[in-house]
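Escalated from tier 1: iron/sulfur cluster holo job.
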Amino acid sequence: MNEKELDILTKVNSDTQVWRPLEDKFGRRHTYLRVSLTDRCNFRCVYCMPTVEMEWIPRSEVLTLEEVVRLVKVFARLGIDKVRLTGGEPTVRKGLTDLIRDIKGVPGIKSLHMTTNGSTLAARAGEYRGAGLDGLNVSMDSLRPERFSEITRGAKIEPVLEGLAAARQAGFETLKVNVVVINGVNDDEIIDFVDYAAATQSHVRFIEFMPFLGNGWNRDHVLPYAEMKRRIAERRDLLPIETEPSAVAKEFAIGDSGGTVGFVTSVTDDFCRTCNRVRLTAEGRLKTCLFLAAKESLRDAMRAGASDEDLAESIHVGLQGKWAGHPSMEKWIGSDDKAMVQIGG
Ligand code: SF4
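Tier 2 regenerated the structure:
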């Protein structure tokens, strides 16, 4: 074998090596990337945006949309096939529709979803769908206008309801309503949300309240999954729905209504054993777990001229630092200096 052939082989092997699937030291294969596009939002939700004055990321430090697409291409070569766009509020980012189109065009990406507060959907749902967006999770933590305004510190519910109607009209394959349940704040609306899901034949997802910087979390504010389910089961038949092993929610059909509910139970019944998620922060840091501080700056590496192989290697190395799962919330609280709005869930 001559020298030239040897070089190619070494290159192929090293390339192949670099592009092996993303697996952590517990054997969990990572196929789902959550990308935060911004730390900014037009809402001020109490469980997400701290009351203290936020230090926004300077625009120059936020990934450009081209950098986002380049990183998605690298992740896709590492086996990522599902992407979710988050924030802050992703729809405040200019050029979002083009970004959706570009990401959907990346080889290997099978599905693209977005989590939004829904406030701009009435005007844009069709455009996002046309660009290739497959699914939407819309945050709506109350069905009562005055309480909605309290939880969001001043936003109106009407544009969100209109946004949901527009999203249904646009024919999204997946359309879910996310409800963060805070004991003593909106837990008395669980049945109303189940009725809403049944009446609109849609999916409502109840999320246990989690601690993040500045959201005043304590265990008394958590309404455990078991209690949510008990309350619903008093009124409705909940029929289990089989989901992917790595699914974050436990899902149920509401009798034969055509509506469904889900429960995200990070506090009382975590699902870390089958975790397939990795995150990219708005400033381009790798975040291997919702509850682990972000580390590797893929942005700095890119801007310093790193090759795609270098970036892939950094991602592999970074993922080896992922833990088996988060500790109890009381033990974890305060160990990350980021608010939910800076992570994107
Ligand atoms: S807490 Fe971390 S390890 Fe557990 S499921 Fe969430 S992202 Fe995965």
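The first helix runs from residue 3 to 18.
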